[in-house]
Amino acid sequence: MTKKRSGIQDLLRIMARLRSPTGCPWDREQDHRSLRWHAVEEVYELLDAIESGDDHELEEELGDLLLQVVFHCQLARERGVFDFEKVARRIAERVKADGLVAYSNIDGVVALGPPMGCGMAEASPGLLLLQKVLQGYVRHPNFSAILLVGLGCEINHVDCFLANTAIEAGPSLDVITIQQGGGTEKTICQGIEKVHRMLPLANEAKREPISVSHLICGLECGGSDAFSGLSANPALGQAVDRLVRQGGTAILTETTEVYGAEHLLVRRAVSKEVGLKLIEAIRWWEDYTARNGAEINNNPTPGNKAGGITTILEKSLAAATKGGTTNLVDVFRYGDRAQKRGLLFMDGPAYDPVSTTGLVAAGAHLICFTTGRGTVCGSTPAPTIKLVSNTETYRRMEEDMDVNCGAVIDGEVSIEEMGQMIYRLILDVASGKRTKSELYGFGEESFQPWYIGPIM
């Protein structure tokens, strides 16, 4: 069976070909200004078609107007500013946002679905860990209201979750199951009704000035390269030092990627007990990977190697600098709530979506994500600030990167100056400025709780 081709994809390919060096000379000569009257003409012809009531003519004129849209999008794509996909995504966002016009204090409605909720033993470590993560999300301050949706008979059914987490349903937390709701379509209708009932209460939340000491920032890295430890990571560390000095909190994680550099954190621990927690976490990972036929130092990844990193030690030494220079105040388990202020460490895996999910569950209001090779990872409901280590990657992926830390490598700014810039951006994002990943709507797909245990 052949896959049906998309007409719009064909049109986009044809326009790109027409604009190519071997394409149509007339099309290659055009720019936004030269095409402006063509667009006006097509609008008038469309109006005539509407007045005539001729559906065939209407179809033709809509196609001509769409061609103008595609033409302008191709011109913008060539300049690296936007493309047709981005325009279409903005339209979808606008349509969704129209339903929230009356609720100016609500940024949006999101749907998060854990990939696992059944097929595990009751009261197993995997189930309890999943429920702990879900609890962290339900209680996250960036969510004003929650609708829990379940099938109705799974291991992690909503009643079990509420009982095990001591969370109670109420005006800002409702539940629904597909089995009791009467099937897919009826459950969707009921869910929409429940969400609409929550909107007025959620809209009562308003921004107000507070001390930066309330801010919790999660620290993540992915797709690191040889420049990460020279620019993005230490610059983020400078920002973390500023945040902690103001009474704020930063959470390091990815235990397997501080392996070999853990002594740098242990010597900064506020007590022997805190230092031992990190050592015990390292030992657990050594045993865990060995039991599964692997090694904790089976790193770096192919992408890291292509970026110039040769060993896990190089990667870990660079990763640890994200935490700055202040004392390590506490070490806690994946998904646990952050209980103290200052520099903290959450034990957990280094896989980006799983790691950021744990940080959000721990209470991180936003994520600072350093990269060298590039990433499009986002997180919901905590905005993700992406910091790239080198200018080459920034230029290739500028639409996805928030800060070019390659300016440090290029000699344009110092690490301290870049750290100050990152710190200011952290405050701006916490105050409502949207990150690149938010503008693209990334985040829902990155909700991936860490699962431990057999699937039965």
In short:
With 456 residues, the chain is α/β, with parallel strands linked by helices.
Verbal overview:
This protein has 456 residues and is an alpha/beta fold. It folds into three domains: 7-98, Helix Hairpins (Orthogonal Bundle); 125-202; 212-445. It is 47% helix and 9% strand. The chain has helices at residues 7-18, 25-29, 32-52, 55-78, 84-98, 125-138, 158-165, 178-181, 184-202, 232-245, 262-266, 272-291, 302-306, 312-320, 352-361, 391-396, 406-409, 415-430, 436-439, and strands at 146-150, 173-177, 216-221, 249-252, 328-332, 342-346, 366-371, 384-388, 403-404. The strands form two sheets. The chain has a seven-stranded parallel sheet with strand order 5-6-4-3-7-8-9, with helices on both faces. Strands 1-2 form a two-stranded parallel ribbon. Helix 1 packs across helix 4, helix 3 (32-52) runs antiparallel to helix 4 and helix 6 (125-138) packs across helix 15 (352-361). The chain is globular, with a radius of gyration of 25 Å. The two termini are 34 Å apart. The mean pLDDT is 91.
